[in-house]
């Protein structure tokens, strides 16, 4: 697969080596956090990722739209609690992202050594 | 992305955040303080075993209730809830089973003691201290392992050492007073550690103003 390098900027055959949608920092934080647990409520997700409510809710909505995240709302008395978890599609996409990222970085490091 | 994501570390950080509130420390400290309160049975004129049973049971139930309410009304509204993966769930199940066995074992020992079944056994004071120390350190040490809660190893060790300290103190003072002093100080210190963690927790995690 052709990789983007300083010389590849103009290469029309270039294909991103990893999923750009997941690569966005806030979404990556959410996906990574949900990958290591079964599910989390939104308060925990906010605390663990350090995102603001606005950021969290907009990225969760995008991830949900893409089918990566599943959101469930439950009520304890009158209080709502929203839970988020990765779907199997989301889990597979994140695993693929990690794999490609590791491959990409290893390749870059080897290229750096050879230069 | 400049930040490196270590997935194992991320899971561990999320898991250990549940111990940042100090409620486990306060709970363990209260359990140890419960030993210090056993001589109070005498003050109320209760028979030794009944007093021991009532005071430990009452105090330990208060400690459990305190922790449950603290988690429900202080911790969860501030840092939310996380359902962890199968390995953590299995470890927590093991802790529950292990604690159940321990309680059962304790009750059986107490009942045998109450019926005078141990009357014929003579045991050296030093050996008794080792046995009692192990009876405290071992369960708490195993709990620390399965809960992945490193501070609990120190508390397990302190609890086990308590009985040796009682032996030393008894050279200078009466039995009930040494029990009261040793476990009062050990339990009290652990409770203070828990309170410090709780204060830090309140500062670090104020109640969220908006929720989704």
Regions with little confidence, pLDDT below 50 for 5+ residues of chain B? none
CATH architecture of chain A: Orthogonal Bundle
What's the helix-strand series of chain A?
A: HHEHHEEH
Q: Could you give a short account of the major beta sheet of chain B?
A: none
CATH superfamily of chain A: Winged helix-like DNA-binding domain superfamily/Winged helix DNA-binding domain
The oligomeric state of the chains shown is heterodimer
> Main β-sheet of chain A: number of strands, strand sense, barrel status?
3 strands, antiparallel
> Using DSSP, what is the number of strands of chain B?
1
Mean pLDDT of chain B equals: 85
Trace the largest sheet of chain A across and list its strands.
1-3-2
Q: Beta-sheet strand percentage of chain B?
A: under 5%
What's the overall geometry of chain A?
A: elongated
Structure in words:
The complex is a heterodimer of chains A (115) and B (212). Chain A is α+β, with helices and mostly antiparallel strands and 115 residues long. Chain A is built from 5 helices and 3 strands; from the N terminus they run ααβααββα. A 3-stranded antiparallel sheet of chain A has the order 1-3-2. Chain B is an all-alpha fold. Chain B has 8 helices and 1 strand; from the N terminus they run H-H-H-H-E-H-H-H-H. Chain B has helices at residues 7-16, 23-37, 40-43, 48-79, 86-114, 125-147, 151-169, 175-204, and one strand spanning 82-83. Chains A and B meet through helix 2, strand 1, helix 3, helix 4 and strand 3 of A and helix 1, helix 4 and strand 1 of B.
Question: Quick summary of this structure?
Answer:
By secondary structure, chain A is of the alpha+beta class. Chain A is 55% helix and 17% strand.
List the helices and strands and how they pair.
The complex is a heterodimer of chains A (115) and B (212).
Chain A: H1 20-23, H2 25-35, E1 39-41, H3 42-49, H4 53-65, E2 69-76, E3 79-86, H5 88-114
Antiparallel strand pairs in A: 1-3, 2-3
Chain B: H1 7-16, H2 23-37, H3 40-43, H4 48-79, E1 82-83, H5 86-114, H6 125-147, H7 151-169, H8 175-204
């Amino acid at each position: 697969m052709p990789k983007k390098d300083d010389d590849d900027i103009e290469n029309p055959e270039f294909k991103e080596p990893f999923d750009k949608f997941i690569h966005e920092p806030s979404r990556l934080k959410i996906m990574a956090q949900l990958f290591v647990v079964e599910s989390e409520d939104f308060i925990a997700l906010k605390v663990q990722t350090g995102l603001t409510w606005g950021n969290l809710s907009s990225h969760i909505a995008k991830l949900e739209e893409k089918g990566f995240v599943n959101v469930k709302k439950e009520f304890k008395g009158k209080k709502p609690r929203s839970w988020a978890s990765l779907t199997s599609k989301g889990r597979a996409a994140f695993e693929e992202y990690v794999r490609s990222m590791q491959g990409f970085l290893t390749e870059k490091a080897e290229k750096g050594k050879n230069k | 992305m400049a930040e490196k994501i270590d997935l194992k570390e991320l899971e561990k950080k999320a898991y250990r955040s549940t111990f940042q509130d100090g409620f486990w420390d306060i709970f363990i400290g209260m359990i140890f303080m419960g030993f210090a309160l056993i001589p109070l049975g005498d003050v109320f004129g209760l028979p030794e075993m009944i007093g021991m049973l009532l005071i430990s049971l009452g105090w330990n139930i208060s400690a459990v209730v305190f922790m449950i309410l603290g988690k429900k009304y202080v911790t969860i509204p501030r840092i939310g809830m996380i359902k962890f993966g199968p390995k953590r769930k299995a470890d927590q199940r093991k802790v529950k089973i292990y604690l159940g066995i321990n309680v059962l074992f304790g009750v059986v020992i107490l009942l045998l003691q109450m019926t005078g079944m141990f009357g014929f056994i003579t045991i050296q004071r030093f050996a008794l201290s080792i046995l009692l120390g192990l009876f405290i350190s071992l369960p708490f040490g195993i709990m620390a392992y399965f809960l992945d809660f490193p501070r609990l190893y120190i508390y397990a060790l302190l609890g086990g050492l308590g009985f040796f300290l009682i032996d030393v103190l008894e050279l200078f003072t009466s039995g009930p007073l040494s029990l009261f002093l040793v476990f009062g100080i050990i339990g009290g210190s652990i409770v203070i550690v828990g309170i410090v963690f709780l204060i830090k927790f309140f500062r670090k995690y104020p109640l969220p103003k908006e929720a989704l």
